[in-house]
User: What shape does this take?
Amino acid sequence: MTTSVLILEDDLQLARLFRHIFSREGFEIIHCKAVSHAKALIHQSRFELALVDVMLGPEDNGLDFVRYARESHPEMGIMVISGKSTTQDRILGILMGADDYLGKPTDMRELVVRARRLVQRLQARAPSGNEGLVRFSGFILDKQRRNLCTCEGEPILLTSREFDLLVCLTESGNRVIGRDVIANLVCGRAWSALDRSVDVMVSGLRCKLRRFHPGESLIKSIRGQGYCLGSVVEPIRWS
Assistant: This one.
């Protein structure tokens, strides 16, 4: 099956290079250079991946699309490729919903490998139809449809990584999961002591869950070990 990729980039020369490289690797490419056009496209066609530039002109910001796409299409992989690549820029991009963030100039080989690995991880995370639903602390997690909602049916919008992190926590049986395990399973890379991406991801997920449980931290930090879910997880079985 061909992987469809949306490229949001206003540098036409760079966009042509992306199209050439990704088409040669077997990806199907659609290019646009405005956020409004990109928003319309993701409702017209299904994309497995979006490559997004941040600086798109004086009145257009790629992070607006990242936030919109994450909310409307939580199953789609999103990679930001930007000349703004400080630690603060990267953290902001991840918090807005990006699954990965690369600085410019970008090594094209690394970009293709990261894109392919992200698509593979998202496809591998898609559960089989017999896994059902789970309930914990007033939430219902649907692994098949990759949705999280309250027991009253209010949806909670998560990034792909936040969803995968929550799946790992709910499947751990309340056992502690180390940062190295989370980095490998969710981010697809090795973890180092200076890597803060796991902590940033946990913090983002905590904030979203805390909106519905003020004052209660459902994700517990175990000093020097990692994280665990401080809640009983119950499978939902239809009678």
